[in-house]
Specification:
- A seven-stranded mixed sheet has the order 1-7-6-2-5-3-4, sandwiched between helices.
- The protein has one domain.
- The chain contains eight helices and seven strands.
- α1 runs antiparallel to α2 and α7 packs across α8.
- With about 260 residues, the chain is α/β, with parallel strands linked by helices.
């Protein structure tokens, strides 16, 4: 990739993202004047999904930053209100899910409150900031998330709590599964896979490597009534996600190996 192409992608990619943040906030300001909280919430949710779907599924792929090769199981996943849990290895994970799951709140780390749009949405929408892993803060987050799902919305949680630095799924925190047991909402495990590391933890690349492809798969739902404890539900979700992710990584390694052999011939 030439320097000119890299520069264009950097400017167009980050410039488009920052501009969309500003435009989104400006579009939200009139919505905040609506008299009903329910109307405000629905309008912001719809607007956010439109913006994120455009940026994540059209604009950035059109620039060649990455490609979303497949989204599998979405129709079944959206059949009813759910708590979505996913592995987490890239900064793009949250926006990829928010761009296709309607009427969704999400649990985020409080450090992201400094980001323009995220800080705004924590203040006026259903973004719930986790301040610490303490029992008190977990109870606060679960209570807020329970309030959100009681309003008929989905909830997105990354139970690892942070980006995984490897291909393995890290241990899950109980928050999402405690919420599921208390609210009665089902858990939908999701797998986000990229064939190359992109915006990973500790990564220093400002532009992803060429040829990045994402695959998003929604796995069969898990119902809290089928489990005695939140830990049992957590373990079932962990097994489903880690097993499917391992298969995708294995398939990708075989594909890369085959491509390497073809180049040598």
């Amino acid at each position: 990739m030439t320097f000119a192409v890299k520069s264009f992608k950097f400017i167009a990619g980050y410039g488009g993202y920052i501009t969309s943040n500003i435009v989104f906030i400006l579009c939200c300001l009139p919505i905040l004047l609506l008299p009903s909280k329910k109307m405000r919430s629905r309008a912001i949710s719809h607007l956010m999904r439109v913006f994120l779907h455009f940026i994540c599924y059209f604009y950035l792929p059109a620039l060649g930053i990455y490609k979303v090769a497949e989204v599998r199981g979405l129709k079944e996943a959206l059949a009813q209100r759910s708590v979505f849990v996913s592995n987490h290895s890239s900064l793009l994970d949250s926006v990829l899910l928010l761009g296709i799951i309607p009427m969704s709140g999400i649990v985020v780390k409080s450090q992201y409150a400094a980001w323009l749009a995220i800080g705004f949405l924590i203040r006026v929408f259903d973004f719930v900031a986790v301040k610490s892993p303490s029992r008190e803060d977990t109870a606060r987050v679960v209570a807020k998330a329970r309030e959100i799902v009681s309003e008929g919305k989905n909830m997105i949680v990354f139970p690892e709590g942070t980006r995984s630095p490897s291909k393995r799924v890290m241990a899950f925190y109980r928050l999402a599964f405690k919420l599921s047991m208390e609210s009665g909402e089902r858990i939908v495990p999701a797998v986000i896979f990229s064939n190359k590391p992109v915006f990973e933890k500790g990564g220093k690349r400002l532009i992803p490597p060429a040829g990045v492809e994402f695959r998003i798969e929604f796995l069969p739902a898990l119902y809290p009534g089928d489990f005695k404890h939140a830990d049992d539900l957590s373990n079932a979700a962990y097994r489903a996600i880690s097993k499917r992710l391992a298969v995708l990584h294995e398939e990708n390694e075989k594909k890369l190996e085959a491509q390497g052999k073809c180049r040598k011939m």
